[in-house]
Specification:
The protein has 132 residues and is mostly helical. 45% of the residues lie in helices and 0% in strands.
């Protein structure tokens, strides 16, 4: 940009800074590449062969199983086929399964008493309030 501001051409400025002419034009025009969200997988799923047949029934019977436990189980069944670098993928799959198809979470509501209506009146002072 300094070279461009001193009056050099786009080609000379790009050559001095070590970038291409297209990059120089893009930078000078203040253009930014768009951040496009992709909606496709970039890799094949390493657990596709065993997810529905082996892992989902285990999770359905025992929903408390962790991704690490399931990975160790797969390592015992298929030694060397599922390396440890796939553990995080399996943990994400288990988390997604629990959120979408897993058992419902227990709902608890806090119960508390507001007391008698007289306790809420402004004429009562804190010294003579009763707990109901």
């Amino acid at each position: 940009m300094k070279s461009r501001q001193t009056g050099h051409t786009q080609e000379i400025s790009a050559a001095k800074s070590g970038i291409s002419i297209c990059s120089g034009r893009r930078i000078e025009g203040n253009e930014r590449p768009e951040n496009k969200q992709r909606n496709w997988r970039t890799r094949c799923d390493p657990f596709e062969a065993v997810w529905e047949t082996t892992l989902v029934p285990l999770l359905a019977n025992e929903p408390g199983l962790t991704g690490t436990t399931l990975w160790e189980y797969l390592e015992d069944l298929y030694p060397g086929q599922y390396p440890e670098r796939h553990l995080r993928t399996l943990q994400r799959r288990v988390k997604h399964w629990r959120a979408t198809q897993g058992p419902a979470k227990e709902v608890m509501f806090r119960c508390f008493s507001l007391g008698a209506p007289a306790a809420l009146s402004p004429s009562m002072t804190p010294s003579n309030q009763r707990i109901v």
